[in-house]
Amino acid sequence: MSKEIVYTDQAPAPIGPYNQAVKVTTACGSTTLYVSGQVAIELAPLGDIQAETQKVMENVGAILRAGNMDYANVVKATIFVKDMNNFAAINEVYGRFFTSDFPARETVEVARLPKDVNVEISVIAVN
C-alpha cells in the first residue's frame, strides 16, 4: 500500500493538522481518495446557502482533479449542515455535480462548523 498527500491551491489550504486529501493505492492497484471536509471560507461573510454549497462542491472538484479523479469517481459523501431547513437548497446544488450512479451519502445537522460556515462536505472517491 502506498499513501500520497494530495494538495491543490485551487481549494482552501487546511486550517489544522490535516490534508486536503489522502490517496491510497493498494498492491492490487485500486486507488481510493479520501477528501477532507470542504467549506467555503473564501465567501466570507456567508449567507447565501446555494452560493456556499456551490463553492464547497467546486473546492471538492478541484481536489478530485488534483488526485486525478472527478465526481464520477465519488462513492460516498458526507454533508454537515448547520440548519437542516437548508437541506433542499443544498441538495439542489449538490445534485448538479452528479448525473447518474449517485454516491452513498448522509446529511447531518450539527451545532457549529469551522469558521462558522453553514455547510461542509467530504467525499471518498475510488478509481
Automatic annotation (TrEMBL):
<dbReference type="GO" id="GO:0019239">
    <property type="term" value="F:deaminase activity"/>
</dbReference>
<dbReference type="InterPro" id="IPR006056">
    <property type="entry name" value="RidA"/>
</dbReference>
<dbReference type="InterPro" id="IPR006175">
    <property type="entry name" value="YjgF/YER057c/UK114"/>
</dbReference>
<dbReference type="Pfam" id="PF01042">
    <property type="entry name" value="Ribonuc_L-PSP"/>
</dbReference>
<dbReference type="InterPro" id="IPR035959">
    <property type="entry name" value="RutC-like_sf"/>
</dbReference>
<dbReference type="GO" id="GO:0005829">
    <property type="term" value="C:cytosol"/>
</dbReference>
<protein>
    <submittedName>
        <fullName>Endoribonuclease L-PSP</fullName>
    </submittedName>
</protein>
<comment type="similarity">
    <text>Belongs to the RutC family.</text>
</comment>
